Every structure is written in C-alpha cells, then in structure tokens.
Amino acid sequence: MPDAVATSQTTSRDPVVARLPMSRVPERLFSVTVIGSGMIVLLLLGAIILMLATGAWPALKAFGIGFFWSPVWDSVNEKFGAGVMIYGTLVSSILALVIAVPLSTGVAYFLTEILPVPLRRAIGVAIQLLAAIPSIIYGMWGFFILAPWLAAHFVLDVADLAAPVPGLNKVLDYGGGNSIFTAGLVLAIMILPLITAMFVEILGATPVVLKESAYGLGCTRFEVVRSVAVPYGRRAMIGAIMLGLGRALGETMAVTFVIGNATRLSPNLFAQGSTIASTIANEFNEAGAGTMKLAALLGLGLTLFIISFIVLAASRALVAPRAVS
C-alpha cells in the first residue's frame, strides 16, 4: 500500500517538475523569483507613468505644449503653467551641486589622505549620519535658524556688493531669508553626505602605486588629486554627482519650508520661489477630484518624472565605457 500511495503522489505532480532532477528545483525557483521581481518593477513603473499621463492629459490638452514653460500659475482663473516650478527646481538643484561638489571633494580627500587612520572611521560615520536625518528636520532647521541668519547677516551685504555690477545685481538683488538660495543651500547640506561617502570610496580605490609614483615625481597633493585620483575615478564621480542631483530634484519637505512658495518668476536668487515638489505638496490638498488644478498638479509630477529620467539617462551616457578606436 505505501508503494501505491507514493506512485499515486508522483503521477499527480506537474509532469515538468516531476522530470526535473531535485538539484535543479532550487535553480528554477530562483529564476522564477528574480524574473517575477523584475517584471513587478516594470509593471509598477508602467502604472505610474500611465497614471501621470492620463491624469495630466486634461491640462496638457487645454494648455498645449506651452504648459511646460508658461510662467502663469493662477488657480482662481484656472490658468496653469509649469515654467516657474521647473525654473525653481533646476536652479535650486544646480546651486546645491555647485556648493556640495567642491565641499564633498575636500572632505573626501581629507578623510582618505590627511586624517590619521584611527580618526577616519569616527568622522566618516559622523558624516554618514547626516544622511540619516529626516528631510523635515533639515527644513525646520533651515526655516528657524538658517533663513533668519542669512537675512540678517548675508543677503543684504551680498546685495550691496553686487549692486554696482550690471547683470549681477539682478541675480543677487535684495530679498529675504526664505528664498531659492536658501533652498539650494539646504539641499547642498542634504546631498553632501551622499556625494562625500561615494567620493571617499572612489578616492580610496585609487591604486597606491599610482599615487606613490606621482609623489615620487615631485607632485604635490593637489596635483596628485587632480592628475591621478580624479581621472582614475572620473566616471564613478560623475555617477555620484548625478545621484546627488537626482536627490535634490525630488526633495520636497525641506525645500517647502525655506523656498517661500511664491509662484512668480524672478532671476534674483534671494527672492522667493517654488519647485515642482513643493508646489505639489502645498496645493494637492486644495485640488478636488476632476478639476483642472488636479490635472495641472499631475502634469507637474509628469514633468518631474521626465526631468529625472533625462538626468538618469545623461548620467548613464557619461559613465558608459567608451569604445576604443
């Protein structure tokens, strides 16, 4: 009887599985799992794109392609354009990179080449802890501490210095603490640990023999970094910078606290502005279902998705290996 039961169980199994040797079953399960995981990611990405495109279609149909550069955002008259938000997003993010990349390079070099070995781990961990601070904490710190200090001790002095210079006085004009400049400064502090951690790994991966050879030829520390370490890890450094840019583009709460949330276009960095993410966060609760404002906000989300995709594609193109001719 036991033999009959065993024979019955064997014949009731899936014939494909039954033919597989027992050693190949885990391999097949692993393949099915990883392929399913990849397909789930693609389905989720497709669902997000479809939701944004269908939701934003009424706004894109009403305002046309001009939606992406129109500076008008008038909720009362239901006229919407993403120009002010795209400008604020790009300017604050690029300003964050301009501030963060040189600082990250200096901190990474200090950690890998100058600081004594026993202190590297402690200070490195302290810098990485900055990345664990929630963005809303950065926003509160920027709103209550940084913005008032900049308004009292920085903005007026810089505007006074720039006032006699044509052109520059438009970019650095008089303003307040809550501004695009403050948003860029807060974003720079937020992406600094991310870029620094990757730069430390990149500089630490430079072969010692290359650096020692450069020192043997009489190069200074700066020349070793410029001529050996940076060219050796250039592609990885570009990837780290692009990751920081991606983080800055999508940051919401910290920027919402300090940028001022004004939907008007101004070249002045010390003026109030808005970003795509901050506008969505501020006005999404006021947009009713089926309204043109909700469609415009979803259009802003679609715009941010396109910008992030372009940044990712550019980073992939920059770090792609070059064909040897």
**Residue windows where pLDDT falls under 50 for at least 5 positions:** 1-11
Per DSSP E runs of 2 or more residues, the count of β-strands stands at 2
Give helix % range.
Answer: over 70%
The strand order across the widest sheet is 1-2
Give the structural class.
mainly alpha
Order of helices and strands: HHHEEHHHHHHHHHHHH
Strand content: under 5%
Mean pLDDT: 85
* Count of alpha and pi helical runs: 15
What does this structure look like?
A hairpin with a 4-residue loop joins strand 1 and strand 2 (79-80). The longest helix is centred in the first third of the chain and has 39 residues, at 25-63. This protein has 15 helices and 2 strands. The chain is 73% helix and 1% strand. It has a two-stranded antiparallel sheet. With 325 residues, the protein is an all-alpha fold. The protein is globular, with a radius of gyration of 27 Å. Helix 4 (83-114) runs parallel beside helix 9, helix 9 (180-204) packs antiparallel against helix 12 (234-250) and helix 12 packs antiparallel against helix 15 (292-319).
Secondary structure layout plus pairing:
Elements: H1 2-12, H2 15-19, H3 25-63, E1 73-74, E2 79-80, H4 83-114, H5 117-130, H6 135-153, H7 155-162, H8 168-171, H9 180-204, H10 208-216, H11 221-232, H12 234-250, H13 253-258, H14 276-283, H15 292-319
Antiparallel strand pairs: 1-2
Helix pairs in contact: 3-15, 4-9, 4-12, 5-9, 6-9, 9-12, 10-11, 12-15, 14-15
Keywords:
325 residues; two-stranded antiparallel sheet; 15 helices; 73% helix; globular; disordered N terminus
